[in-house]
Every structure is written in structure tokens, then in C-alpha cells.
């Protein structure tokens, strides 16, 4: 029995993995239509390769898919019409607390679906939303009205300064930031061997 197909399958999966790493870190919800189609085509090609349609032909095809996608992504950065045509643009769905029905119809999005997206972001009223868009990825982007915005630390400190209250002394020893660990590429404190 010829077991070379095992090595071919592993080679195709490794190449596919490397190409996906080149494409970047995105969840399915963040992908554009073109990225999803490329991913599905790659999955199909990997499946065909494993069933015996040729290792090198499959690897070259996968590389062509990724090269075309990267080319479109680079052109989309430089040319607005390429971005609009292949990636899409955000669509305004709420302006000054009012829904824009014609844009919802273009997106084939019901008011109930829009409400669900807002509730997921903790927004309970259209009147609290100054502007909302449905982004290329299908996610909602929004800006709250002034009365609905949370107070920032900077704004709070300004109010305290105006009231001439003394601010508590800041800690001299920082508690540690998880992002600092990513920047340093090492843990600040020793991690339990159970979690490594």
C-alpha cells in the first residue's frame, strides 16, 4: 500500500496553515466577502488535494488564491474604488437617533436585527445613538449622543479639579498590564506550571 498520500496531506495542510498565517488574524465575523470566499476555496482545494488531485498543483493553486487576495487588499489601501468594489464600505443606518430605513433595506437588515446589534453593545435606545453604521464585516459601529456617553477618567479629573478636590495619590507600583507582557513577549510574574 502506498502511504505517500499521508506526507502529501501533511504538506498541503502545512502550506495551508502558513498561507493562513500570512493572511493575518481575523475572525470569520471580521472577514470581508472576498476573504471568506478565498478561505472556502482554500479549504476545498485542500480537500481535493488530500483525495489525490496532485500535491504541487494544489500548493500552487493555494498560493495563487492568497496572492490574489493580498493583491486586492494592497490595491484597496491605495485605490478607493477597489476597496469599494471588492471590500465594501460602511453603511449609515442611524443618524441623530433616527433609523435610515432605505439603508436598512439595502442591507436587507430588519429593525429587529438592528435592535439586537445595539442591545449586544449595551445600547437600549435609538435616541442615545448619534450615528451608527454597519461595517464591511457586518459589525455595528456607533457614536453615542453626548448625554449617553460614559464619563472618561480625564473628564472626571477635570470635574474634580474644578471642584478643587485633591486627587488620591497614584500607585507607585503598577499592577501590571497584560499588554505589557505581549510587548515584552514574556510573563511579568511566574505562571503556574498547570497553566503553561
From TrEMBL:
It is found in: Cell membrane. Keywords: Cell membrane, Membrane, Transmembrane, Transmembrane helix. Signal peptide: none annotated. The chain crosses the membrane at residues 6-24, 31-50, 56-77. Its main location: membrane. Residues 78-147 form the YetF C-terminal domain. Pfam families: DUF421. This is UPF0702 transmembrane protein YdfR. The gene is ydfR.
